[in-house]
Write a structure and sequence with these properties.
A hairpin with a 3-residue loop joins strand 20 and strand 21 (about 270). The strands form eleven sheets. Strands 3, 4, 6, 7 and 8 form a five-stranded antiparallel β-sheet that branches. Strands 17-23-22-19-18 form a five-stranded antiparallel β-sheet, with no helix packed on it. Strands 28, 29, 30, 31 and 32 form a five-stranded antiparallel β-sheet that branches. The longest helix has 21 residues, at about 1-20. By secondary structure, it is mainly beta. The chain starts with a helix and ends with a strand. The chain contains one helix and 43 strands.
């Protein structure tokens, strides 16, 4: 029966093969890329100095759209040689707020999109800005409020060019009933005009507050801006071990005193997170802290100096936003403060960071240029907490790379593993703060990988999990600074993963979050004691 069946199949196939050989297929046409097609959709939210413009990429022209945004001018037919924004890469809709405009002026704006062929423009839209009120100040309160359970940061703006009076005071005022005045709680600015932030302290958790910017003139009158409201977070204590912010990977963290601070990262659907949490190992409780006021995301670096923690060089995939910003967190006041940005262009993601004494260090990472090229940094920078000044140090001597790990032991810093654009590496390097010299140490014994975690306890350094291009790992390795030797000490009980975080507090470490490519976003959290 099997032989007859084979003959039958062959008999059916032969005529089909003959027919196929008798039909000559015409070659597929070669498609030549063209300029993208982009449209300017609308102009809205017009103020005396700004407007929101929206556009959409209708077709990419058969090639990747590497940049899109809006260009504008006081003359018709603006181009990217005039003022412009960068709103991302296609396809789909996009928008930008264009600011710094002149009141009582007509502007012309067009959307633009660029691919390998060139730049095309959407239809031109003209709009006119209103003038400032002639009889009063322009006083405004931003609705972008950062708050926790006991404090908040509110941004205000006082413009003075359209009044004949002098300013004698400004700030923000607030209450819990509405229409706050300077007779209620208030902040007082040192300088009276321009954009400023007001720190609201002594708030009560789970309470709604009303806030207005105010400005006082030398004629005795007080001008108030628009009113905004927000409800402070309840005082949140979450028992248990798992990270309460939900599953995510590429979080950032640091330790201050006896507590760990963890947050940000990439959460479900690759959405950038900006929540921040305090972990108390003594009580095994999580406390939600003030939201990170910068742009959320992952692949950031974190370190602590004294009683302050720092987060820098944040990246997210959601809209391609990358930043060189450095932010300081004070757990005593639960307030974030922006410090001097890392002075390099372009911005970077996937950098590493650690601290030694009163200095913070940031280096390597991916150049975020949006030109389709994978290029990497090998520079290394020192930040002085006392002066808020960056200084360039000796370049990292290994290949430029991203996705490495770092930690510090005493006055030495260490960087290892990562991806250099063509291959993974297991290199491990030591930097001496006193001499500004790099020395290559024993290669990481766990093998080449990226997206691992790293931390130090005493005179030992630890690297664990991560992966290569085909698989993830769960191994944890210990490096002895004295013997320059690696020893495999444990397997992570949560299973293989990449993008996990490890933070040491005292003589123990806390490891968690990450992605296992199956469950995807993980929130488990484990204590590691090297002495057990």
């Amino acid at each position: 029966m099997k032989t007859k069946l084979n003959y039958l199949v062959l008999a059916c196939l032969v005529p089909g093969i003959i027919m196929l050989n008798g039909c000559k297929k015409e070659p597929d046409p070669i498609l030549t890329p063209t300029l993208p097609v982009v449209a300017t959709a609308s102009v809205s939210e017009i103020t005396p100095q700004s407007a929101v413009v929206r556009g959409i990429i209708i077709a990419d022209g058969g090639a990747e759209v590497t940049a899109c945004g809006f260009c504008w001018s006081t003359s018709q037919n603006p181009t990217i040689s005039d003022s412009k924004t960068f709103a991302g890469r296609g396809p789909g809709g996009f928008f930008s707020r264009i600011s710094g405009l002149t009141p009582n002026t007509t502007y012309y704006v067009r959307s633009y999109a660029t691919n390998i062929i060139g730049t095309s423009y959407g239809t031109e839209i003209s709009f006119s800005l209103p003038d400032f009120p002639a009889s009063s100040l322009d006083v405004s309160t931003s609705d972008n409020v950062t708050f926790s359970s006991t404090s908040a940061v509110v941004t205000g703006n006082v413009l003075t060019s359209q009044t004949g009076y002098n300013l004698t005071g400004s700030g923000v005022c607030w209450n819990t009933s509405g229409n706050p005045t300077t007779a209620d709680n208030k902040t007082i600015n040192v300088t009276y005009s321009g954009i400023f932030t007001g720190n609201l302290t002594g708030l009560t958790g789970g309470t709604t507050y009303f806030v207005r910017t105010y400005a006082v003139l030398d004629n005795g009158s007080t001008i108030y801006g628009n009113e905004i409201s927000f409800t402070t977070s309840p005082i949140t204590m979450v028992p248990g071990i798992d990270f309460p912010g939900g599953g995510r990977y590429s979080t950032v963290g640091f330790a201050i005193g006896s507590k760990a601070y963890i947050g940000l990262g990439i959460s479900d659907s690759d959405f950038p997170a900006n929540d921040f949490w305090e972990w108390d190992p003594t009580t095994e409780f999580w406390t939600k802290m003030a939201y990170f006021p910068g742009y959320g995301g992952g692949y950031a670096g974190g370190f602590s100096i004294g009683t302050k923690g720092y987060v820098m060089t944040i990246s997210n995939w959601w809209d391609g936003y990358i930043t060189n910003e450095l932010w300081e967190f004070d757990p005593a006041t639960n307030i974030w403060t922006q410090k001097a940005s890392l002075p390099t262009t372009p911005a970077r993601g996937y950098a590493v960071g650690f601290s030694i004494g009163t200095k913070g260090y940031v280096g390597i990472g991916h150049m975020e240029q949006y030109n389709g090229l994978d290029e990497y940094y090998n520079d290394f920078w020192e930040w002085d907490q006392a002066t808020d000044v960056w200084a360039k140090k000796a370049n990292f001597p290994g290949n430029a790379r991203q996705g490495a790990v770092s930690f510090a032991i005493g006055n030495k810093g260490y960087i290892g593993t990562g991806w250099n654009g063509t291959a993974l590496t297991d290199e491990f390097w030591e930097w001496d703060q006193a001499t500004n010299v790099w020395i290559k140490k024993a290669d990481f014994a766990g093998g080449p990988r990226m997206s691992a975690f790293g931390f130090s306890i005493g005179s030992k350094g630890y690297i664990g999990t991560g992966g290569d291009m085909t698989s993830l790992t769960k191994d944890i390795w210990e490096w002895n600074q004295i013997t320059n030797a690696w020893t495999r000490v444990a397997d992570y009980p949560g299973g293989p993963r990449a993008g996990a975080l490890g933070v040491s507090v005292g003589n123990r470490a806390y490891i968690g979050t990450g992605s296992d490519s199956e469950t995807a976003y993980l929130r488990d959290f484990w204590e590691y004691d090297p002495n057990l």
